[in-house]
Specification:
By secondary structure, the protein is an all-alpha fold. It has 20 helices and four strands. Helix 3 crosses helix 4 and helix 18 packs across helix 19. Keywords: Membrane, Transmembrane, Transmembrane helix.
Length: 581
């Protein structure tokens, strides 16, 4: 055994400084351990020498480039699989190993010292060329992690793979490009996939089980000859899907259109009939047949307008109205509307009295005169009271608007818009009430003339003038409200500021406005205006009725309403109506 150890010692490579230091430390430890051993028997010494020779052979093999393999083998034998590296590893790290005896030590001494140390794989740096290190296996967690909740895969923005939804989406996108509604479609496209699917279901009919492109086309395409997508519907469905309250609280209904038509036609025919009557009274005999023919028609249309007015007075009455507002609905609209039927009687009487003996129609003339006085008085009282309240409210709202301009935050901006809109409405109502008061005065004078001088044409002429004035005042207010929509939208969307941008320098205002409203998801000025009014009404209701914001309450009261928080009055719907009407 000694000669085998000697031959190995002469053939191995010189030990490195690190190896010599490690061997010296191991030698000292082995010497200390050997001194403490109790058994000096020959078999024990022989076993120690065998172990030392084996260790020397291991060291020589490692130093000659086979250290990596031997280290893995040793680690595996010691039950340390986590220390076993793949053959591609260039650097292997392990627990410090048995001591390496100096080259000058005697074989027997080396064998004894090495035998005392535990047999472990040493730290070895291989001299072989380095290979890429294999990734280390992750350490096992102390405890198993809880399974993650299942997350369904996201829906693609273009709804691809969602059956009919994808087809409808592609068709809408194609139509938007053809009809120059790409900006409006971009609003829809910015919705979440779920919101888009909700909008498409609404376009599909809402209650149908499956989305089908043909169903959507039937519901969304309009026109007999030139067919196109109903982009107004598209806008409403898109904004509904984004959880926006799109209800138009001021939308005109069939009864409103009937009222507009009755007022307009009664004013025009009344004017024509009155003009003919005046001409005939002044000696123009050719105008007499015109007066005779138009009189009954004007009277009938006046009666229709009066019925519509009475109905609207009942429908628009609300307990949250101010005292003046209630009086205007009951007396000015309802009572005076009933009195307006006197114009029907006066028109009919005016036609009859031109072709028959006045004595036969004295009763009808007296009834028309009395109704004219009563109705005219109601209009006068209502018009004067409304004018005074509108004037005071308009001033309060203009002051509120100026106050909000100084703040500049979003709340102040919204309140400023509400004050501006409400102030504009109060100004329009002030002008209309002024005309109503004058109309009442004319009706009183005409009724009195009929009673005093039945044969005189003065009475019918004054009543006809009252009809003309009332109709003109209503039409003027309607026109102002229509034009205000555009100017108010321009104010809120800051269209004038957008016009000053370099890219809009040569673009018309209408085109810039349309671009801005489509970016907000609207297809028309009317839609945008209605949504602004709805949003402002909701803001005032939340802060001024449910809340206790003094500025919001001041605006609500200045548009002719009384706040009752306990009853949650006025409603959002009533606030929206009074902001606009």
């Amino acid at each position: 055994m000694s000669s085998f150890a000697d031959s190995n010692r002469h053939t191995r490579k010189p030990a490195s400084p690190i190896q010599r230091e490690s061997a010296e430390q191991s030698t000292r430890a082995a010497a200390s351990s050997a001194n403490s051993r109790e058994s000096d028997s020959e078999p024990g010494k022989l076993l120690q020498m065998q172990r030392a020779s084996g260790n020397q052979a291991v060291l020589q093999m490692m130093q000659s480039g086979k250290g990596t393999i031997m280290r893995q083998t040793g680690a595996a034998r010691m039950g340390r699989p986590d220390r076993v590296n793949s053959p591609a590893s260039s650097t292997v790290r392990a627990t410090p190993a048995a001591a390496q005896a100096p080259a000058s030590a005697a074989p027997e001494q080396q064998a004894q010292e090495a035998a005392a140390a535990p047999v472990t794989a040493p730290t070895v740096t291989s001299s072989a060329p380095a290979a890429p290190a294999a990734p280390a296996a992750p350490a096992a967690p102390a405890a198993a992690a809880a399974p993650a909740a299942f997350t369904p895969p996201p829906i693609p923005a273009n709804l691809r793979g969602k059956a009919g939804y994808s087809e409808v989406y592609s068709w809408l996108k194609e139509q938007a490009a053809k009809e120059k509604k790409a900006t409006l479609f971009a609003y829809f496209d910015a919705l979440t996939p779920e919101q888009k699917m909700s909008a498409i279901r609404a376009m599909n009919g809402g209650t149908k089980r499956f989305v089908d492109l043909d169903n959507v086309k039937k519901a969304m395409v309009k026109g007999l000859i030139s067919k196109s997508v109903d982009w107004d519907k598209f806008s409403v469905f898109s904004r509904d899907a984004s959880k926006t309250d799109t209800k138009n609280y001021n939308a005109d209904t069939d009864k409103d259109y009937l009222g507009y038509a009755a007022i307009g036609t009664s004013a025009s025919t009344g004017g024509a009939g009155g003009s003919a009557t005046i001409s005939a009274g002044l000696g123009a005999k050719d105008a007499l047949p015109v007066a005779e023919g138009i009189g009954p028609a004007a009277g009938a249309l006046s009666g229709l307008a009066s019925i519509s007015q009475i109905y609207n007075a009942t429908d628009n009455y609300d307990e949250s109205l101010s005292n003046t507002g209630k009086a205007q609905q009951i007396v000015g609209e309802g009572g005076a509307g009933a009195a307006d039927l006197a114009r029907f009687s006066a028109g009919t009487v005016n036609s009859v009295r031109t072709v028959a003996d006045m004595g036969l129609n004295a009763g009808a003339t007296v009834a028309a005169g009395a109704a004219g006085i009563i109705g005219g008085a109601a209009y006068m009282v209502s018009g004067v009271a409304g004018y005074r309240e509108n004037k005071k409210n308009a001033k309060n709202l203009h002051d509120m608007e100026d106050k909000m301009k100084q703040a500049g935050d979003k709340r102040a901006t919204d309140l400023g818009h509400a004050a501006n809109l409400g102030g504009s409405t109060q100004e329009m109502n002030k002008d209309k009430n002024k005309a109503t008061a004058v109309k009442g005065a004319l009706m009183v004078a005409g009724g009195a003339a009929l009673l005093i001088a039945a044969a005189s044409p003065a009475g019918p002429i004054l009543i006809a003038l009252a009809a003309i004035l009332g109709g003109v005042a209503a039409i003027v207010k309607f026109y102002k409200k229509y034009k205000r929509k555009e100017s108010f939208v321009d104010r809120v969307l800051k269209v004038d500021e957008a016009m000053k941008k370099p890219e809009n320098e040569k673009t018309g205002k209408d085109k810039v406005r349309q671009q801005l409203i489509e970016e907000k998801g609207f297809n028309s000025v009317d839609q945008c205006y209605a949504q602004i009014v709805t949003d402002l009404a909701g803001m005032l209701f939340e802060s001024g009725v449910r809340g206790d914001d003094a500025d919001s309450r001041s605006i609500i009261e200045s548009i002719g309403l009384r706040v009752d928080s306990a009853k949650q009055k006025p409603t959002k719907e009533m606030i929206a109506k009074k902001l606009h009407n």
